[in-house]
Amino acid sequence: MSQAQKRILMAKTGLDGHWRGPTIVARALRDAGFEVIMIGMASTDDILSAAVDEDVDLVGLNIGGHIDVAKRAIALVQSTRPDLPIFAGGTIPPHAAKDLEALGVEVYPPGSQLSDIVDAAERLTGRK
Amino acid sequence: MAEKSPPKAAFAASGIELKSFYTESDIPTEHRARMNVAPGDAPYQRGFHPAGYRSKPWRIFQLSGFGKPEDENERIKFLLKNGETGFIMEHDRNTADHCYNVDHPDVVARREDVGLTGAVMQSVRDTAICMDGLPIDTSFGHAGGAVVQHAPFALAAYWTVAKQRGFDLAKISGTGQSDFNLTYLGCVTKEQIPTQAGLRFNADIIEFCDQYLPRWVPVSIAGYNAADTGLTPDQELGVLFANAVEYLDEIKRRGNVDLRGAAKACGGVSFRASIQIIEEACKMRAARLMWSDLLRQRYDITDPKIANLRIHCVTAGSKMTYQQPLNNIVRGTLMALGAVFGGVQSLGVSGYDEALSIPSEHAHQMSVRIQQIIQEETGISHVTDPLGGSYYIETLTAQLAEKAWQFFEEIQAQGGYLAALDSGWLHSKASDNQYKEFMDTESGEQKIIGVNCFQDDESPFHVDGFMGTDDAFDVATSRLQDVLRTRHEAAAATALKKLEADCKGETNIMPAMMQAMDAEVTLGEIGNVFRQVFGNWNTPIQT
């Protein structure tokens, strides 16, 4: 029996419209056989409801701004779906990356290799 | 003896295949006939003036802004004290790009983001704080307003403060940018007026400046924003001129002002200065050549004061690495050199912490110092167009211009620049290039020091990203309440009605915007009028 296609939600926590990072990541994930649901700039509530409604296996957050905004989204997702893994990318300075990692979020800053991100998606969704 | 393998093929970022050396016969014949002119003479590829940087050093012009308006003011004064020769006022992206006040639910939900990329300026009072003591009469000032729907507010607020301080608008110089490549291609916001409305705004600004602010650069088309989104150097050139003809054709159609004035207004542009620095120098030369040809052939304009393109450059932010950030001082220096070899009139160097955050004070200072060292110590400023006449430089300049015209024509075949934005055609071009660029890095075909090779980082110098101040949201909230409580309410209501009527009709919106500033109408109220009258752009991509 073939395994069902794993689903990944991608969202931006900020109101900053730079799109090249998340779209490249989405493309690499799709090429690797994942179904990617992109909701763009989204509120904390929208991120949670999309994660639940779409029954995703992984949440990817693009963080272009302050991590406190992302932390609220992470807390909400984790309180409702504690088993749902989250990874994040964007201009996340090292001190903020450490804070996110302490919450169990994997961080892929600028310069990360797409293959590492795809590997992480496979591991986090249990595909590998 | 073993036979040597033939040299590996090499390509410029524009995809032009490079020879391992060049001779005179490589220079295209038609270019050879035009290349032996002095700088300052048509077709201007050799630069803006025979004496070049001896007549006028390039402007040191750094993006700057964060926190509260007074934080931004302090940073700008720091840069000026360190030798910056123009200044840029960044606005908070959350509020400015969307024309929201700070109490908009989407902003409140992201309160910690507020002030991270620029100060919140939602009334003329905020702008006055940010401009306090700045040399607006003697320096070229960037009022902010890079995003099209925000430009009328940023400009009107800046000009109103200038008037309040007793300056003659006819004598001040600066820009607000109002750039389509940023707004509709590179940095797509959640809400934005449609491109046709944006074109009307920019035409209004051009005509208003033509009448009242002749020294102002009303719109500044930024190839930078197209390039850092993924377009190649030839495409950056092609898209910039495709954008310019949309503006000029519209001004011609409206028939309100002399097209020559509008052409001068559109001739203050910006480009990205990326890391393939020889090609980038050629790109600046090709840009001047193309502008002169475009104006002559399409609009019959040959006046040197108009046909001589004025170029601001910013080093490529996306080439700055998160890993081993001090290496970015070297990258910034090299990219700045490429721009200077290309003869640009104005330059900003990205901070070495660009990939981590907005610039720290030290990173900002280094960006200024890099430029000063090139300007004062290297002697490069002594001779204009130092690379001119090189077989390679002249060949690549001509090839880039030719390839750029092909892309310009491709855009025309899509129905023009606006249509190519509306359909998402340009976005998919950028996206394909981005993906290829990433794959080349991934495979190791393109090496990036500290990223995919030589990754060991034992630097004792710790760079951790500058996060600005943490009270921007609270202060902006209380200042908004103050304005709404203490302004003359009837005057504000009248001004808003006038703005709405002018938006619905065909009257230039800028006089109503100036009236709105006098009446202390706020950014969010103006945004509400724009949204109600013009609706929202149907974004062709999912960001």
Describe, in plain words, how this protein is organized in 3D.
- The complex is a heterodimer of chains A (128) and B (543).
- Chain A has helices spanning 20-31, 44-53, 67-80, 94-102, 114-124, and strands at 7-12, 35-41, 58-63, 86-90, 106-108.
- Chain A has five helices and five strands; from the N terminus they run E-H-E-H-E-H-E-H-E-H.
- Chain B is mainly α.
- Chain B has one domain (29-442): Methylmalonyl-CoA mutase (TIM Barrel), CATH 3.20.20.
- Chain B is 50% helix and 5% strand.
- Chain B is built from 23 helices and nine strands.
- A four-stranded parallel beta sheet of chain B has the order 3-9-8-7. A three-stranded parallel beta sheet of chain B has the order 4-5-6. In chain B, strands 1-2 form a two-stranded antiparallel ribbon.
- Chain B starts with 9 loop residues before the first strand and ends in a 9-residue tail after the last helix.
- The relative contact order of chain B is 0.15.
- Classes of the chains: A alpha/beta (128), B mainly alpha (543).
- The interface between A and B is large, with 34 and 45 residues.
